[in-house]
Amino acid sequence: QQSLTVNIGSSHPEANIWVYAMKNTFQPEVNRILAENGNEYQVNWVENYAGTLYKFTDTREAVMDGIVDVGMVGTVWEGANMPLQNVTYFTPFATEDHRMIIEIFDDLSENLPELKNSWAENGMVHLSSLITDSYDIYATFPVASMADLQNRKLNAPGTSANWLRETGATPVDGALTTYYTNIQTGVTEGTLSFASGILPTRVYEVAPELTRVGIGSMYFGGIAANKDFFEGLPAPVQTAFREAARATSIAHGDYVGDLAARALDEMQAAGLTIHQLPDEEKAKWVNGLPNIIEPWLEQTGEAGKTVLKAYFSALRERGATPLRNWDEGL
Amino acid sequence: MTTLTVGFILIAVLIGLVLLGMQIAYALFGVAFLGIWIIRGNIDLSFRMLELTAYSGIADYLFATIPLFVLMGLLVSVSNVGRDTFEVAEELLRRMICGLGVATVAANTIFAAVTGVSIASAAVFTRVAVPEMKRHGYRPAFSAGTVAGSSVLGMLIPPSLLLIIYGVLAEVSIGGMFIAGIIPGLMLALGFVAMLIGITIAFPRFVLNDPDAVRERRMDRDFKPMPLRDLVLKLIPIVLLVVLVLGGLYTGFFTPTEAGGIGAFGALIVALSRRSLDRHKLWQVMKQTGVISVSILLLLVAASFYSRMLAIAGLPNAIAGLVTDSGFGPLGFLFFYAVIILLMGMILDSTSILLIMVPIAAPIAQGLGIDLMHFGIVTVIAVEIGLLTPPFGISVFTVHNTLNDPNVSVEQIFAATLPFIAVMLVVLVIVALIPATATVFL
Amino acid sequence: MSEEDTSELQEDRFVPSLSESPYGAVLGSFSAAMSAVGTAGIGALMLLIVLDVIGRNFLDAPITGVSEIAARSVVAIVFLQVPAAILQLRLTRADFLVRRLQKSSPKTVAWLEALFCLAGAIVFALILWASWPKLLSAWQTAEFFGVQGVWTIPTWPFRGITILGCALAVLAALYRAREEIRSARSAA
Ligand code: NA
Ligand code: NA
């Protein structure tokens, strides 16, 4: 029997939606598969979860530089080095089905050369996709029409600020950890966010009106292995990693789905009221957005066009109807 | 040798170097670099971790507030707002036993509501209160100790850098932490007052050079009281600043992180409007801000590198395991935790302690059913004691440096802060035993 | 403004004259200039926050990216100020032992100080060595932070400041070490 040491880690704690399946599915699955295949190899996991080694801004470099061998990589924070993966954030209102996003990106990251190479160029091997559930508005007020968003201040950090353009609302920077205080003190009046993220931060206590908008589920990043490390693994262990990664994708989708459903129940029990933005208002929002994909296409060039086309045809193949054809005219 | 043993040896090496007098940032960087190299057997990894930490270890909006809080402190100081606050307190407390000591505590309490870092309070009141106390027969060392001791109020009464850092690390509401700090902060202030009065009655020689002269002055019926108009005028700037910072914070005008910037700007306006600041002097203040800030910030980068090395050594997990296995109840854990922080407070700066301890301890505390806000206040009080304990007590150093008096040694100031440490320990125990002291308004 | 207030703010004495020590004079002036840029950065940071708060509350126009810009700036401010802080002996330390020894054996203390300065030079050399490859790659890949289409800022100037700051910090620490060794020799 041969023993291998694998450093696994993340910038976020084990209970986080993007880390949960790493710890609770990936690791045990690898162990199980190796044991079933004759116990020839055994993995000695060294866990560095919860940002003890690096911060969320450094998830790519941590895996790339081998600080961990396997890690959660938030490509959402890597707009400069891995822009292709952020296609979902520039094409809102595509689909609310987060399992579909996982499926599509597991496929594209392995089979679309542009995406696969992007991981390789950054010294990584993509194992399993990480996503968010669909974005909605958690606020101190319900949104019945687009007029209700006029002159409102909403936390919408990073790329999600784009989604508020031309809506009359003002995007304010922030993070899951600052929403509660921001809303409580009136710095903002709500946030664009997703149920599984809102529940643990108790934002619903200060923003008790949820308006389901369905901005969509987003590709957040991936669980990835350091490329040199992965290629140095014995073939049976590589296979075990791959198989475990498939199980992890499914577990991740289920966990987020369950958590989002549970979150809505618990939050409602705690006083959250749920509203639905009417379809015609939603259409106004979507069609009123400027062409926010434009700068992304300029940055990513031909590769970007290929990824966008592949993503949107994968969506349609699976029966999704994006509310706006961001790929039009390519 | 297990990585854990290596970890403990490296801690010992660090303590040794710090005690020898090496610049703490150098010691942290050096020991951590060697540690990662030894534990992982890979010098490349040391370099990569070092690069990551240098580039993004303190790349956080939160840390950007440190220079701004320092700037606010210095501006308030050059515009004499601190002196005026002290003079009003002195005037009102003239008849009190140990009146100038109590006035220092009172002025510090009010001042604490605008500043977020204790060293700002320490620097301001060293220049304002110590000369005045010396002039009126108080022992210089005791005066310096009183300033150092009461400066800790700056970090417990909101706004407070330590509460912000704890809030971020433990992922609890920073606004909530600010509210939780109010009662323990006031308890501390009242405790200091009671202690000062008690100690002056019981050991007048510890406090005063010439007790008789001081008593005479206290009983003097012939002094000219400060006209009410002067009194109000002297108070207006500090009141405006308190209203700006706390008012803005609680009406949602700005976030706790932004309070440093707004407060500094407010202090700048006050300084300019009082004509206490020309272009040259403003530049001097800014430069001073830079010099003070960099010494804190570099320490933070180094501490963050060091705590990553400890994580690689598996120390946080080991300590967490130790606590879980030991079967401590919540109180036992709080006690154990406070003792560790007090020990760390002797050799490390407050922010480093938070960075090292909170990520390890907060999840354990939560698991034991301790309210994280309550836990945060206990943490911050324990950490603040470290501002006063030798060999590394930053508040005492600040007072000593600012005072620059060859007749008052650091050791004497450390000795004079002992009664303050005693009060803080008492408040620490009370707050630990009665969570409501922190959580009642939440 | 009283006299005792001004005296504490005088901190300009760390630049020796050119005739006294050409190396120290050049190094000191350069460090002072960098430190001045960092100092101006603190002021800019304050104004940025104030403008953001005013823009957000009164004009519905917050400044996007303040938190990221502030985050990057604070690192730059540190590395801009470090060389001057080393020359001014402002880095935090527990010096009770050194002060004790100073009276009995100033020579030992000078050697100890020289050793610490060398340790500082090594530390900053390590950071320099670790960081420069990332400066190159940031330059080559036009790495930025921010949000495509909203606002972006290249990272190479920030990485460059780290490199520059470390390089000067190494020189500053070596200069201090030389001064300490000199005083150790002259104490003999
Ligand atoms: Na305060
Ligand atoms: Na201490």
From TrEMBL, chain B:
Give this protein's Gene Ontology molecular function annotations: transmembrane transporter activity
Where is the major localization of this protein?
A: membrane
Where the record annotates domain TRAP C4-dicarboxylate transport system permease DctM subunit, the positions are: 12-436
Keyword presence, Cell membrane: yes
Cellular localization per UniProt: Cell inner membrane
From what superkingdom does this record's organism come?
Bacteria
- Subunit composition and interactions: The complex comprises the extracytoplasmic solute receptor protein and the two transmembrane proteins.
The protein's name: TRAP transporter large permease protein
- In the record, what lineage is assigned to the organism producing the protein? Bacteria, Pseudomonadati, Pseudomonadota, Alphaproteobacteria, Rhodobacterales
From TrEMBL, chain C:
Q: Which GO terms describe its molecular function?
A: transmembrane transporter activity
Keywords annotated in UniProt: Cell inner membrane, Cell membrane, Membrane, Transmembrane, Transmembrane helix, Transport
Mode of membrane association: Multi-pass membrane protein
Q: Does the keyword Transmembrane helix apply?
A: yes
Q: Where are the transmembrane segments?
A: 23-49, 69-89, 110-132, 156-175
Q: Describe the location of the Tripartite ATP-independent periplasmic transporters DctQ component domain by residue ranges.
A: 45-182
What does this protein do, in the record's words?
Part of the tripartite ATP-independent periplasmic (TRAP) transport system.
How does it associate, per the subunit comment? The complex comprises the extracytoplasmic solute receptor protein and the two transmembrane proteins.
PANTHER family documented for this protein? 2,3-DIKETO-L-GULONATE TRAP TRANSPORTER SMALL PERMEASE PROTEIN YIAM (PTHR35011)
Put simply, this protein is called: TRAP transporter small permease protein
- Give the organism, scientific name: Marivita geojedonensis
